[in-house]
Amino acid sequence: MDKLWAPWRIKYISAKRKRAGCIFCRAGRGVSGEHVIFKTKFSIVMLNIYPYNNGHLLAAPLRHTRDISSLSREEALDLFACLKRAKSLLSRVLKPQGYNIGFNLERPAGAGIAGHLHMHIVPRWNGDTNFMPVVSGTRVISQSLEELAARLRKADEHNQRIRR
Question: What is the DSSP letter of 126?
Answer without folding.
Answer: T
